[in-house]
Amino acid sequence: DMDPFECRLNFLSLLEKLNATQYSIYKVATYAVRHRNLAEDLYSCLLEQLDKASINARVNIVCVLDAILEISNKARFKGYQDLTRQDLARIIETVVPNNAKGNVNIGSTRKILDNWRRHNYFDSSAIDIVEKPLLDREAAAASSQIASEGGFSKEDMLRRMEEDRERHKRFREEVWIRPAGEPIDAEFQQLWESTEPLVPETDYEVMMLQNMLRLPHYAW
C-alpha cells in the first residue's frame, strides 16, 4: 500500500489540477476509489480543497465526489457514501454560498442532487432538506426582473457556460440508465409524479393544436 502521506499529496495535486472535463473528473475519482483504504484521509483532502476553491472550481470538486460515489457503488464500497452523508449540508452550502456568485452553482448542484436521489445514495428526505434553499433561491432569481451576473466578467460567463456543458454531459447520458433492481414501473411512476396536473382551461386547447399540427388532414 502507498504511504498515507504520499497518497494524500498525490490526491491534493490531482485536485489542484482538476478541470471540468470528464477525463479530469474521473481521473481524480478513480484515484480516490483505488486508494479507498485511505478514504477518510482523501475525503478530508476533498473537503479542504472545497473550502479553498473558487466558486467555479467547487462545482468541479462536487462532480468528483459524485463520480467517487458512482464508482464506489459499482465497487460495493460505502465508505465515501457514509462520510458524505454526515457532511451533506455543509458540502452543499460550500458549493452554493448564499450570495450572487453562489447562485451560478445552483443549477449544476441540483443536477448532482437529483442524481444522488435517483441512485439512492442518501435518504430522499436528507436531499430535500439541502435542496429546498436552492429551490427557493432559484424561484426568487426567476421572479426577479434584473438578472444578476454576480460580478462575473463576460469572459467568465462564457467560460462558465462552456464548462457547464462539459460537466453536464454525463448527466445527459446517465438519465437513461435506471438503477438495478428497481420496480418495473419505477420510471413511469417518476414521470407521473413529476408531471403537473392537467389544466382543462388551457391544456386541451394546446393538445388540440398539437394534434392538428401533427395530423392536419385528420377530422379532429
UniProtKB/TrEMBL annotation:
Pfam families: CTK3 (PF12243), CTK3_C (PF12350). GO terms for molecular function: kinase activity. GO terms for cellular component: CTDK-1 complex. It comes from the Eukaryota. Residues 3-138 form the CID domain. PANTHER family: CTD KINASE SUBUNIT GAMMA. This is CTD kinase subunit gamma CTK3-domain-containing protein.
